[in-house]
Structure formats: C-alpha cells, structure tokens
C-alpha cells in the first residue's frame, strides 16, 4: 500500500469524535438543558443521583434520535453544504453502523430511564424518538413545508420528559414549557432557511423558503413571533414562573418581535446586499432567547428552594 493510499484510508477511518458527531451534540445540549429544567422545576424533589441518571438517559435518547436521523438523511446530507462533512456522507461511518448504533442507544436509553425513574417517562422518551425519526425525519421532512412546524414537537418534548421523571405525568406547567419550545422552533429554523435556501433547494427538501419563497417565510416568522410571545410571557403566571422569569420573558419577547419585524420588512435586494446579516443575527439571537427563558425558570426554582420565591 502506498503512503498516499494509507493516508486516505486513515482519513476515512471512524474516530471516537465521529460517533459523538452522530449524536448531534449541539442539539443534544438543548435536549439536556430543557429536560434538566423540566426536572428541576417540577414539584416533586428527585434524588440527585436519580436526576443525574435520568438526564444521562434522556441525553442518550436524544443522541439516538440524531444518529437515526443522520442514517436516514445520509443521501441529502451528501448534497447540502453544511452537512456533507458529517461522518456518514464523509465515509467515516457506514449507514449500517449508524443504524445499529442509533437503535442500540434508543433501546438502552428508554429501558434504563423507565427502570431508573418510572414507566411513563421511559415510554415518553420512546415516543419522542419515534416521533423525531419516523414522523419528522422519514415522513414530514420530505413531504410538506410544515415539516418543521409539526416535527418541532420532538424537540419540545424533553422538558415534559424531565417533568414526568419527577411527577410521573403531565401538567399545565409541562405543557407550557412544551409550547415555548414548539412555537419557537419554526421562526428559529426558518430564519436559518432564509440564508441557507440554496442548500434546501439543491437537496429538494420542501422547506418553506423553497416551496413558498422568502417573502412568505418572512411573514410566517413574524406571525409565529406574535403567537409565541403571549405563551412565553403567560408561563410566568404558572407555578413555575415568577418575577425573574416574567421580566426576562417581557424583554426577550420584545426583542424577538422587534427582530421578526425587521426581517419582515426586508427586501431580497437588501438581504443579498448585506449577505443576510439581519437574518443570521436573528437566528443566533433565537438561541439566546430560548436559553434565557429556561435559565429564568431555573432561577425561579432556585429562589423558591431557598425561600425567596414571591410569585
């Protein structure tokens, strides 16, 4: 074997980091954080070790969803510029290996979560994985421009699972956290689609920007921003809210709506002239937006724990 061939073979060999990449760690971090907040703000205290184990298996379940998503989407990942260097399209991990890896993690995470906490949370995690992989990835993503709207539910379930770990069920508070993530998801991803439209066009993924154009997408971002705001602010009046959360929600939603209005007012000529700077800024701000809301819920739980909650 020549030195060049050996180097190429080495470059295509799977490394530990490739298996981590299969888990979509950035998405997993959102799953872990929102699930953790859902667990902490729930009314029934959970032993720290049980809580740690629960979050670990919820994280593995989220990672399993990511691996199965990459397995099924390998064909379009090879086309899209932002995904073509993922482990499968880059040839470092085979589709069969990714499928086996994802299925194994799915089974382990759901069974162990059920055994460590309660059956309902284990079944809820299993349903979440099924929803993300089958309903969103295999069906909605390539079938309808509403893919991210309906499919966004999968990313909104983790705080409900965290809540279920503590309570064994669902309540208005867990539904409020679900709606916060669920209604945030479309404007978040559509702002990404505005400046990544070419990728979705080339891969023939029916994102709203590809099927209805950027003008309609801008209108929908504004529409969802106005729907999201009362849900986000209203959560402050539930048992998990309080003055810290309420103030955070007012400020963040005012800024979120302001950003959506700016995007709505943009023409394509303006967007192309500054390389979609406003759209990119809104996309990154939306990440801060969601983190701030859940961090504020966490702060309220901390204040209540030390007896300073006043809501």
TrEMBL record:
CDD domains linked: PT_UbiA_Cox10
Is Transmembrane helix found in the keyword set?
A: yes
- What Enzyme Commission number does this protein have? 2.5.1.141
**Cell compartments where the protein resides:** Cell membrane
Q: Name one Pfam family in it.
A: UbiA
Q: Catalyzes what?
A: heme b + (2E,6E)-farnesyl diphosphate + H2O = Fe(II)-heme o + diphosphate
So where does this one cross the membrane? 21-43, 49-72, 98-116, 122-140, 147-165, 177-200, 221-238, 244-261, 282-308
Question: What broad class of enzyme is this?
Answer: transferase
Keyword list (alphabetical) reads: Cell membrane, Heme biosynthesis, Membrane, Transferase, Transmembrane, Transmembrane helix
Function per UniProt = Converts heme B (protoheme IX) to heme O by substitution of the vinyl group on carbon 2 of heme B porphyrin ring with a hydroxyethyl farnesyl side group.
Q: What HAMAP family does the entry give?
A: CyoE_CtaB (MF_00154)
Q: How does it assemble?
A: Interacts with CtaA.
Q: Which family does it belong to?
A: Belongs to the UbiA prenyltransferase family. Protoheme IX farnesyltransferase subfamily.
Q: What is this protein called?
A: Protoheme IX farnesyltransferase
Q: What organism is the protein native to?
A: Thioclava sediminum
């Amino acid at each position: 074997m020549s030195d060049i061939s050996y180097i190429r073979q080495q470059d295509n060999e799977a490394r530990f980091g490739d298996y981590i990449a299969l888990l979509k760690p950035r998405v997993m971090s959102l799953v872990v954080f929102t699930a953790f907040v859902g667990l902490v703000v729930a009314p029934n205290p959970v032993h720290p070790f049980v809580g740690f184990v629960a979050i670990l298996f919820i994280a593995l379940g989220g990672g399993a969803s990511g691996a199965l998503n990459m397995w099924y989407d390998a064909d379009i990942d090879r086309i899209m510029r932002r995904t073509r260097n993922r482990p499968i399209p880059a040839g470092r991990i085979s589709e069969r290996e990714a499928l086996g890896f994802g299925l194994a993690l799915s089974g382990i995470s759901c069974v162990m979560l059920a055994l460590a906490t309660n059956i309902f949370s284990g079944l809820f995690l299993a349903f979440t994985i099924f929803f993300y992989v089958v309903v969103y990835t295999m069906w909605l993503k390539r079938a309808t421009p509403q893919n991210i709207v309906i499919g966004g539910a999968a990313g909104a379930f983790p705080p409900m699972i965290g809540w279920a770990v503590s309570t064994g069920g669902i309540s208005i508070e867990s539904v409020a956290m679900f709606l916060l993530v669920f209604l945030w998801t479309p404007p978040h991803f559509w702002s990404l689609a505005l400046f990544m439209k070419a990728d979705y066009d080339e891969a023939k993924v029916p994102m709203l920007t590809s099927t209805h154009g950027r003008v309609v997408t801008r209108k929908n971002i504004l529409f969802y921003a106005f729907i999201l705001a009362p849900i986000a602010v209203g959560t402050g009046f539930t048992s998990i809210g309080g003055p810290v959360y309420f103030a955070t929600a007012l400020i963040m939603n005012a800024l979120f709506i302001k950003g959506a209005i700016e995007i709505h007012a943009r023409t394509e000529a303006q967007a192309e002239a500054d390389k979609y700077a406003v759209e990119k800024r809104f996309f990154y701000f939306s990440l801060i937006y969601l983190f701030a809301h859940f961090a504020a819920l966490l702060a309220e739980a901390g204040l209540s724990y030390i007896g300073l909650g006043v809501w």
